[in-house]
Amino acid sequence: MEFVPCLMSLVSCLSEMRRKRKVKRIIAPDLKYGNQLVAKFINYVMRKGKKSAAQRVVYKTFDTMQQKYQVEPLATFDLAIKNASPALEVKAKRIGGATYQVPRAVRGERKMQLAFTWILNAARAKKGRPMHEKLAEELMAASKNEGIAVKKKMDTLRMAEANKAFAHFAW
Asked: Is there a contact between 103 and 129 (Cβ–Cβ < 8 Å)?
């Protein structure tokens, strides 16, 4: 009879040892367009907590896209993110002393994160002009399946295809 309460306390102790679940925060849509994807992009553009500066850059980018290229900025932005998002990536996995580049499918959240990062890095790498112009140019190039961010996506895809032989190591 004494055994049952001890077993119950052991089970409760084991359940407490599990890790805390990550709570996914819901990001409020941005102020001007009411779009969550734009709000998330603003957060990626932001540096040192200066959100108003990041908003200014993104909104100026969209205005530049509308005036200079005569396109609908939100549709072009969505297309650019879609074109820069990778389907496959490689992850290093160590097996028996050797490290293999194992191809894996990319989750939705990570696809967006990689596309945002590649587009921003490509825009920041260009010199001599304001950020909103460089970002507008890179978004336009990505929407046409061109530019540095799309090239990075193609390189990642090529590397995943080349290492297809190690796909059985995927965990």
From this structure: no
Question: How is residue 76 written in tokens?
Answer: 């072009």
**Per-residue confidence (pLDDT) for residue 163, from 0 to 100:** 86
Q: What is the arithmetic mean of pLDDT over 51-74? A: 96
The number of beta carbons lying within 10 Å of the beta carbon of residue 64 is 20
Mean pLDDT of 7-23: 67
Q: What is the DSSP letter of 91?
A: E
DSSP label of 25:
P
Give the containing element (helix H, strand E) for 120. Answer: helix 108-125
Q: Which two tokens stand for residue 70?
A: 């005569």
- Alpha-carbon dihedral angle through residues 87, 43, 37, 59, given to the nearest 10 degrees: -120
- State which of 25-29, 103-107, 136-140 shows the largest mean pLDDT: 136-140
Residue 157: CB atoms within 10 A of its CB come to 16
Average of pLDDT values for 67-89?
96
* pTM of the predicted model as reported, rounded to 2 decimal places: 0.83
State the amino acid at position 154 in one-letter form: M
Other Cβ atoms within 10 Å of 4 Cβ, number: 8
72-111 b/e with 16+ CB inside 10 Å = b? ebbebbebbbebbbbebbbeeeeeeeeebebbeebeeeeb
